[in-house]
Model the fold of this input.
Amino acid sequence: MARLIRSPAGPVVVGIALMGLGIALRLPVFDYAGPRHQIAFNQYPFDQSWAAYSDIASLFFRDGQWRHPIPYFDYRLEYPVVTGAFVYAMSAFAGGVTAYFVASAAVLAGLGAATIALVRRVPGSNVWLLAASPAIVLYSAINWDLLALLPTVAALILYVRGRDGWAGALLAVAVSAKLFPILLLPFALLVAVMERRVRAAAAGAATFALVTVAINLPVALQERAGSGLVVRKGWAWFYKFNLKRPPEISIYHYIRPSSLGTAGINRVSGIALAVALIALLVIAARRFGRERSRAVLLPAFATALLVFFFVNKVYSPQYSLWVMALLALLGAPLWLAAAFAAIDLFTTYVGFHQFAVHGQPAHHNYITGVLNPAGAVREVALLAVLAWFAVRLLGASGPRTAASRPRAGPASP
Done:
């Protein structure tokens, strides 16, 4: 074991093993023999184990993947286009939920292994905080976040190395899988402009825009008789769904802005994120002006993303995979990563266990006496990680490395 830990391949091997364990935790998915109906299926894994549920398997039944429907064309999907393309590709294995889930989880595990390998290459990182985390076990096969996490980490590394064109292309893929990696772009453009590398900034922005359009345009537009080209409702549903989605257990659950409603909370969270982003850009600009190191992109993006998670009206459990990846990238202290992982494990258990007690007489008491306090603890944990990232952004970055110096000459896509 000690030899494995010291080996460069050790984190990847351990990560793959833990992601395999995550697939094994979903054994109730393999055993399900009930009707092909989402509600009937959803209760079955929760009755077997709090850790058995997966969005991947649940949406197999909701969207009838055994019929091989095309997302956005044949049905609405509340995820961006890259995720939809992956879902459709995996429907080739959709003769049954077991084959569909295993195929999806196996590909996602491969992406997770590649993410771990990339994190290991970042100077100052501690890859074990991700590779050996409970998040790898719980969330690698619960949703499709690894489709976005891998290209986000790759884009971040390339931006730090001054390869803005390629970074912009990868970031476009990430944003087209999960929207929030877009928070990296303004910081990347900022440092390129401050370096007076206008061509690099233009290459990064243009490549990002072109790849985003190339991915989304064929799905976003459709020809309608008498109206010409119009926005496809199936593609726009992702944005409409997230605007209309009511707040779940988040910071707004505890400040109880009952008079705001969902639209009001959208405005509050949007304004809070915008104000924080402007402030973080100013801080990042000042630090970059002092140190001239693109390494500032790491704590800047990490802080911005944690602000988003904190002020957003919904915190999905798999977001913790992003938190652990960022902690690993920045080489966070073990106590912080362990504390967050323990709190996240507890709150995920509490959150999923509510479905096992749903309908029982004690259900309301469970929500008010257990679920709500646990959610508050998670908010405190998020705020603590956010504070640590912010301190890193404000502090000195240490000696510059080859990875933090931009390459000479203009970047090419």
